[in-house]
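Hi P.,

Sorry for the delay on this. The queue was packed all week, but I finally got your sequence through. Input first:
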Amino acid sequence: MPPDDERSNYRLVRETVLDRIEVPPRAVHRIRGELGGAPAAAEYDRLLEGVTLGLAFQGIGPDGHTASLFPGSPALDERERRAVAVPHDDVERVTMTLPVLCGARVVMFLALGGSKAEAVVRAFAGPPDPQVPASLIRSSQGETIVLLDRAAAANLDN
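Then the structure:
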C-alpha cells in the first residue's frame, strides 16, 4: 500500500512521531508497500543485510500479534530472510522476521487499553507460544521493555 494510505503503519508513525519531533532521524527506511508484498519484502530484506536494530518498537494486537506476525503464521518459522510478505485479510503486508526483531539491542512493547489485557498476559506472563507472536520476541542482545497502561496490565495481577 502507498505511504499515504490510511492503513499504512508508516503514515501513522510519520503523523504521530516523525512530523512532531524537533530533530528528525538521520534516516527513515520505510517498507515500500506500494511495490506489492513480495517485491517490497525482497527490497527490504536486502536493505536489512548487515543491519542490527538499535530499537525494535512494537505494539501488540488483541490476538497477540506484533509487527505483521500473526498467530500460527508461517512467517514465524522464517530464519533465513530478514523481511517477508505476509498475506492478510485487508492487505498484503511486509514484516521483519523474528531473528531481526530479536536481534535488536532493545525491544520495546507498548500496549494501551483493556482490549490488550488478555494478549498482554499471554505474551508476557506465559511461555513462548506461536499462537501469541509477541511472546516470541525478546532481545537476544540487550533488554526487552514492556510499557503498559493500567487497563492493559489489569489481568497481570490475577
